[in-house]
## 1
Amino acid sequence: MNFEESKVRAAKAALSEVHDGFVVGLGTGSTVKHFARMLGDEVRRGLRVKVVPTSYHSVEMAVDNALDLLPLEAVEAIDVVVDGADEVDRDLNMIKGRGAALAREKVVASMARRRVYIVGEDKLVEKLCSTKPIPIEVLPFAYRYVMKKVEEMGGSPKLRRAGELKDGPIVTDNGNFIVDAFFKPLDNPRSLEAEIKALPGVVEVGLFCGVADVVYVGRSSGVVPLAKHK
Ligand code: 5RP
């Protein structure tokens, strides 16, 4: 299967969630990049929307596609957020934060009336943590403490490093570090989300449980919308 094509299909399906006059939360990542381009095309055809970014990456995508930006600080409500995800389980719980934007992504999602996620089918898993670690945004001075606590919870934490692009750890848009926590496939992601979030020094955890209203899954044969159980 062509992964890029599946992302394009999912992004296209999410366009049906956007209506004239909407304030749209714009997620982060390569799948949202397709959505931003398509939204830009619709705006050129006359659709009126404003977008609230979830990262500097989404600011860039908005600027590149001539989308009107609203700072998060200036909005009281968001009509719909469209964002990507790293893993999605059958209850629509998700891991997010590969792009290190989880903190702002969660705030924007919690302000949105409707929460739409777009993924290729390679992101679907039986249980979260099957293929990806949980990104945790931490205050820099607390990273060793948080890593020790994650180990006590049974996880294997790793400080995310910038690799060739910078010496030392990566620094998020908010000036923090990311600890990637590897766990065995999770039976109860909701309780782990609460447990990690409660650690002093943790800014946000990349488990998004009970957040998604719908996940559009791009497949080679088309798109499948997975909706939240009512
Ligand atoms: C960034 C994210 C992204 O939405 C997530 O990593 C999906 O990205 P992509 O669409 O490139 O696979 O959570 O923090």
Note: The longest helix spans residues 30-44.
## 2
Amino acid sequence: MKRILIFILPILIIVTLGFTISGIMQARFTEEKLMDDLMRKARAVGESLELAAKYILVNNDLKAAKRLADSFQKRERLQGCVIYNREGQILAVTEQFSYLNDQERPYLKNILSTKTPRGAIEQFREYSVYSYILPVLDDDGNVLGMVEVIYDTSYMFTTLTELWKKLSTTLIALILLIFLVTLLIQRQIFIMPVRRLTQWFTHFQRGDTDKLRPFAEEKGEFGKLVSEVEQVALSMRVARRTISDQAHVRLQKEELWTEAKLKDLIHAKLGDNSLFVVSNREPYMHVLDESTGKSACIRPASGVVTAIHPILSACGGTWIAHGSGNADRKFVNSKDKLGVPPEDNRYILKRVWLSKEEEQGYYYGFSNEGLWPLCHNTHTRPLFKESDWKMYKEVNRKFADSVLEELPANDPFVFVQDYHFTLLPKMIKEKRPDARIALFWHIPWPTPEAFMICPYQNEILEGMLGADLIGFHVQNHCNNFLDTANRLLESRVDTEKFSVVRNGKETFIRAFPISVDTRSGTGSFKVEPLRQIEHLKKEFELEGKITALGVDRIDYTKGIVEKLLAIDRFLEKYPEYKTKFVFIQLAAPSRTHIKRYHDLISEIDELVEKINWKHREGDWSPVIYLKKHFSQDDIQPYYQLADICIVSSLHDGMNLVAKEYVVQKNDLSGVLILSQFTGASRELTDAIMVNPYSTEEFAESIKLAVEMPKEDRKKRMENMRRVVSENNVYRWAAGIITEMTSLKKIEDKNALPSG
Ligand code: ADQ
């Protein structure tokens, strides 16, 4: 509208100005003409009365004078006639002007003496009139008297008002007409081509070649523009193909999975189709610091973010996630998107907005009070509320719509993350059967008996089976899922192919142990200068002490309480380590709106306080509890300085902290104490395994770690570092993408007509 006004306003100003000037001129001309008519009429009537007046004045016939004056009474407009004697006194006057008897009119004497007629506009009481006075002479030229003709001029004003009314109506009609015509022209000239161009870009973006054809055939400038853009796009496509071909060659040469190799694989396997990742947690969050009023961009403490970020950084694509930062809306474009990382845009982040109620029901409620405890064996009761389930379904639908909006025309690849989106694969598949969908389940999958308590089990399983591939961290979770599908759904489980067939659709179930970015000095973790480590040692007085470390989100599944109890027991049993041993716990508060998490925070606070009070000696306390969110760069020096890292999860899909620690211990001096209930324990077999529920055994494991000989530490760490670097996050992603594309091949082969 603003643009239209800018365009129309000058035209309107010119038209209005022109019209007003011509209106004024027309009004003036009309006024002059009316005046002229009036004067002429008055003069003619005055002269026509001269003879009759002469007779009256000569004969002093007052009756005749009265008759003459009264004859004006009947005329349509206000008119009058006055007969004067030679002294200028009124002999007869039309009744409506009888007040003239009392009016002083000095110019009458002048007319009598000069014998010259006079015509002028006069104000008689409330009336504006035209008065024409003619001296009446005898044959010798002597003055006998005067005759006056009076005309009302108000009709002139009425006529002019009418004229102005007509002019204004015409002007308004003209403005409206100009407005309409301009709108039509603007639509035809500007909006339609822009709209067509936008349509063209949308189809082009989605690779909809059929819908693009009519555009290219268009004649004129628009057709030329489309053809030019097509040429640019073609060159880009060719360039991408070339990279793909080079990728094939490189893929066969390299052994360890690297960022470049994954990039090549994705180009080789997915071609022009980019990757679409969906997760609840976003990789970058904008938060407003209330005290400074400034916004900061942070990376949330989340295993999913830690794993997926390096993949999209390497390969590009679009990541669709909940925009949960309180300043998130300030940093997106009109399509709710932004390029990230902020300093070096590698991929697109599309934020989906949720209301408070949606977040409460879908995220805190169904996902984290229902599914999270359902899938973790930690004896926390899952809560399933109908209202949360309803919200969960609605939010899954919202994300599905947001994903569908983005998908290109052919064979898109959608990679869905975690338990927040069990219904998404089916919702997407229903609208886009050609989409290849993988779902990765980052947490454990329970036994069928445990899963069975979920009131919405069938819808959840059906939703998940909309995916072509479902990935878990370890084979045991795959087996549990196959058992669950077998027992709870009407489906066929193929234990040879590890797939579930339901309603003619096959979903493959595979284990892909997730990992971290192992590049040293690049990616999420940079080689930290010694300076920072020295600074921490000084700050916490760690010099000469054995330092153990824990890095966790504050979650009851992470066994932070069990870890603290084990430290307490260790110091009880082996007091010689007092003042020589320090445990640092970095703890990021999470899901704090849930009571269980809220209570856990207080429980840990109290326990830390109690243990420190119990064992304190001089300035030394055994536990340094740092309860806050750290950036990845800030965690790094803690990993590097720690002699021991303790991962004590009661149940954990994988646990990336264990792997991060191993990657960071370049000097091979660290020991990892790892809960046997983590997925990571299957790979990191050189860690000291613990059952966190057994405080006694746990305390012994700490002693073992503290006293482990240097050579032993080195050997174990070397083995673990080899395992993690061979099975890094690039290999994890490559495994899923290779599996997906080879599944596609099986389907393609099946689709060939037999014979
Ligand atoms: P999470 O339960 O989030 O992930 P985890 O794998 O341990 O658990 O990853 C946590 C991540 O958060 C790590 O990258 C860690 O560095 C970071 N982090 C921890 N404490 C932090 C703090 N105080 N400040 C900042 N960052 C912190 C889920 C599953 C896991 C699975 C992952 C990936 O529960 O089992 O390993 O997904 O699949």
Note: The chain has 22 helices and 23 strands.
